[in-house]
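During the no-cost extension, the postdoctoral fellow (Dr. R.K.) reprocessed legacy sequence entries with the updated structure-token encoder. One reprocessed record is reproduced below for audit purposes.
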Amino acid sequence: MAFSDLIDRLRDPPPIVPVLRFDGVIAARQWRGAISLSTHANALDRAFRMKRLAAVALVVNSPGGSPVQSSLLYRRIRALADEKRVPVFAFAEDVAASGGYWLALAGDEVYADETSLLGSIGVVSSGFGFTRLIDRLGVDRRLHTAGENKSLLDPFLPEAERDLERLETLQGDIHAAFKEHVKRRRAGKIDPADETLFSGEVLTGRMALAKGLVDGIGDLRTVLRARFGERVRLVSIATERRRRWFLPRPVRGVEQRGFAIVADLVDWLEARLLWARFGL
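Re-encoded structure tokens follow.
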């Protein structure tokens, strides 16, 4: 860099846009690459504390997961944005669906690629049943509760109709909160009476733009250069690392370790199922 260029840069420093990646399943559990408030809280604080801050960019590549963690991340981002009076731009990569779209709505403006997959505004619960497995292993499942509704869809017990009805009620309430969130954040941009938006359907970037779920088609660098000029500095902010899949939990005893490995395998399968819904 020429000395004159350095002087010009010191006199007129470029605007800064920190970039935070949200890449993976949204979950409070210890999956590798899992997204949660604990993995991103420090990074968010660092991003919003930077000098010459023009905006904050979120790059979302997530099939969803925990609605609670999605909401916690959204609230932390919006609280910091309001406190610092800084605009937030969200960019969907391959997928910003379900909880991933909930998180993307933390952006004042949301962008996607034409072929990104977005939406899936609904609620899904998945799991596994191990009743035949424990029968084959000769294991007795002993479950004792105080309160008739304490246990819900225990994976080691047969499904009960009453449990399914309770689950449907819970899902309905979460779905209502999701719809309210979308209507509030995309007010004036979507047709709130269009119930197809909330059917759980997945849309491409172009389809989402036509429905008002995103503000435009574009990538991080192109959009932010157009907004803040060619000299804008995009600064990647590192987040907390998570432990690897299949690394056994720190437990003692052969039996406990065996259950820990099974739990890790179930976590991995659940994560893969979430991605598989979108062909990834």
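The two ends are 43 Å apart (CA to CA). The chain has one domain: 3-276. The remaining legacy entries will be reprocessed before the final report is submitted.
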